[in-house]
Every structure is written in structure tokens, then in C-alpha cells.
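The instructor's notes for this session suggest beginning with a concrete chain rather than abstract definitions. Hand out the sequence below and ask the class to guess, before any prediction is shown, which regions might be ordered.
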Amino acid sequence: MLSTFYPIIQTLVIYAMLAFVIALILRLVFNYSDPNPFGKAGRFSYLLKKATDRFVYPAARLLATFRVDTRLAPLVTIFIAIVLAYFALQLINNTFFVIDGLTAAVTAGNIKAIIGFLLYALVSVYILFIFIRFIGSWFVFTRNTFLGFVQRVTDPVLIPAQRIIPTVGMFDISAMLVLLLLGFLQTIIRSTFQI
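After discussion, reveal the predicted structure:
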């Protein structure tokens, strides 16, 4: 029942993503064209830069550390935004899947399906925590915050993975591997419990 709302949410996220990507591509064009600041294009460029600075600045800092032209930061931001939107849509889809399936299993009294959906939900929550940790790695936080809790919960899995696969610059490839393995575990749960 709730899954009928997913296509609406997916469409809204895709349109918002397209608007964001168009804004960043325009910013990239303005970065290289350097329009007259007193003309209409220059004023629009200034407003666009001001509106998108908080999203582009972390990518510009990253590029500056590798001595890459910081005017390319909108491209990095677009890539990160697309990855984040993809994971967000997957999490929303999983949430609707679990709620719908758990409701149907409880109504039918199917214990095997209830256990399967609960296991699937636990793995989904862990995937969400890893996703939150990935986003939180861009920010400074203390161990007493929610992000500190997420770090403590995900450390037992991510630290051994990081020992096997080291980070590349700022990117933690081991977290991607863990996410792939957890996705595979969800597939096993679905086939085992036939959910």
C-alpha cells in the first residue's frame, strides 16, 4: 500500500536532482566564462554562486588539496549528489518494502516472513548507518552526538574492512565493499525467507 507512494517520491527526487545538476552546470559555465558582473548574466551568476556555495565548497577544498582547478568543483558536487540521491532512493524503497511486507506478513500470520522482514530491516538500518557515516565524514563531530553513536555502531565492521582495503584520498572504498556485501546479504535473506 505504501509502495504506491514510492514512484511519486522517486519522481520528486529525480526532478530536484535535475534542477540541482542544471544549476551546477550553469555555475561551471559561469566559472569559465566570467561574465560582466554589472550585466544580467553577471548578477545571475553571483546569485547562483551564492546559492550553491555551501554545496560546492567542500568539493573545492578537496580539489585544492590535490592541486586541481577548483573551478571544476561543481562536477565533483554533481557526482556526489547523484550517488547520495541513488542511495537515498534505495533506502526509501527498502523502507516501503519492509513496512508493506511486514504488514502483510503480520496480517497473514506468516512467522517465517515476519522473521525475514525483521532481519531485512535490521540489515537496512545498518546500511543506513553506514550511509549516514559516509555523509558525516564530511563534518566534524564529537563522540557524544548521534554521528558518534553511528560511528561506534559501524566501527566493528568498517575498521576490519579498512585494514584490508585502505582509503584512497578522502574516499573510503572499504565502506563501498561493505555496502555491497550487505546488499548481497539482503538478497540471501529475501531468497531464504521468500519475502
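Then share the key points. The CA atoms of residues 27 and 33 lie 10 Å apart. The chain has a mean pLDDT of 86.
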